[in-house]
Design goal:
By secondary structure, the protein is α/β, with parallel strands linked by helices. It has 2 domains: about 200 residues, Rossmann fold, CATH 3.40.50; about 130 residues, 3-Layer(aba) Sandwich (Rossmann fold), CATH 3.40.50.460. It contains 12 helices and 15 strands. The strands form 4 sheets. It has a 7-stranded mixed sheet with strand order 3-2-1-6-7-14-15, with helices on both faces. Strands 9-10-8-13 form a 4-stranded parallel sheet, sandwiched between helices. Helix 6 packs across helix 7.
Length: about 375
């Protein structure tokens, strides 16, 4: 009698980032070695299950071959379909949040899936934890270019984002020097300044502004003035999108319908105006990298890390280790409980050696 096949459902939620496809490929390749597991993908996170008609595809060899070098995600993604607070448009155009978790779990089980692998960041893993507590066999894989999950030493996509930001910063240094300008480069980092800090160190910035350390505009002006003599000099600044001045607020816009987050962006222009208002006489130019940091081919480091995460996630499923999230700990791929994974946010500690070393290199955080 032929043993029936087991089925695992894979999905990518939240923002896209380089390395997602490498995880999907790692899961699929590891599953194929078991012979009795089939891997499927849900399109646009849990939407593929909840939508009518459902959008679920089998992740066979033809679909997953070679995708580890591609940016984005072949499964598509969304940050507007939290099943615990699913946005439903009302007749008057307003949005009402509805808990569809019970419906979601019922549909997943009705489709015959034995397990789910949820690839996503802090928000996605909080969803994973609730679904696990409600009886769903689920494993998490950490994904965020912001590197803001404290239960893992590193998340894939982060190194690629830093590399993209550093390449861009290097180009701004030469034009800043040529024109004796202050160049402000805005990078991603809603609540955590990991990308900004690493880019500042890698690129040799004079100033790095992050959400964890509110800046003093007067101190920044003095730092800039110290770089100029008789109108000659230049300054390069890296600023995270969530950075804010002392006694100030972040720069945000109204979020899109169905999104749980406000849209950040524009802090570079705010800082530029603040510097001018405080008496900075140098010419200032602003560059906002935005989603450039999320796109393109993942670096070798992120391809390796993402592939290892994919293999480990599938092995957790094979061994029935549910309610866990894959994690990199002390250069070893292991796992933590979903409770531990979502317990603490990974902020940049202003007293950490990373920040102290940056200051030792002469980088000002505006404090």
């Amino acid at each position: 009698m032929t043993e029936s096949k087991k089925k695992v459902l894979v999905l990518t939620g939240g923002g896209d980032c380089p390395g997602l496809n490498a995880v999907v490929r790692g899961i699929a390749k590891r599953a194929r070695k078991e012979k009795n597991w089939e891997v499927y993908g849900s399109i646009e996170a849990f939407n593929g299950v909840l939508n009518e008609p459902q959008q679920i595809i089998q992740l066979g060899t033809r679909i997953t071959a070679g995708i580890h070098v591609k940016g984005g995600t072949i499964l598509k993604t969304t940050n507007k379909s939290n099943p615990l607070k699913f946005p439903v448009v009302q007749k008057d155009g307003s949005i009402k949040e509805t808990d569809r978790s019970a419906e979601l779990i019922q549909k997943i089980k009705a489709l015959g899936f034995d397990a789910v692998i949820n690839i996503g960041g802090d928000g996605s893993q909080k969803i994973s934890r609730v679904l696990f507590d409600k009886g769903l066999n689920i494993v998490g894989v950490p994904k965020t270019i912001d590197n803001d999950l404290s239960a893992t030493d590193m998340t894939f996509g982060f190194q690629t984002a830093v590399q993209i930001a550093t390449d861009s910063f290097d180009k701004l240094v030469t034009t800043a020097e040529s024109h004796h300008r202050v160049m402000i480069m805005e990078v991603m980092g809603r609540d955590a300044g990991w990308i900004a800090t690493h880019t500042a160190i890698a690129g040799g910035a004079e100033v790095c502004l992050i959400p964890e350390i509110p800046y003093d505009i007067e101190k920044l002006v003095k730092r800039i003035e110290a770089r100029y003599k008789h109108g000659k000099g230049f300054v390069n600044i890296v600023i995270a999108e969530g950075a804010k001045p002392k006694d100030g607020t972040i720069v945000s816009r109204t979020g899109e319908k169905g999104s749980e987050h406000v849209r950040l962006g524009g802090v570079a222009f705010q800082l530029s105006q603040q510097l001018k208002d405080a008496g900075c006489e140098a010419e200032i130019r602003e560059t906002v990298l935005g989603h450039i940091q999320r796109g393109g081919t993942p670096t070798a480091f992120d391809r390796v890390l993402a592939s290892l995460f994919g293999v480990k996630a599938m092995e957790l499923v094979i061994h029935g280790e549910y309610g866990k999230m894959v994690a990199l700990k002390n250069n070893n791929v292991s796992y933590v409980s979903l409770e531990e994974a979502t317990r603490n946010y990974n902020f940049v500690n202003k007293d950490s050696f990373l920040v102290k070393a940056a200051k030792g290199l002469g980088i000002s955080f505006g404090d």
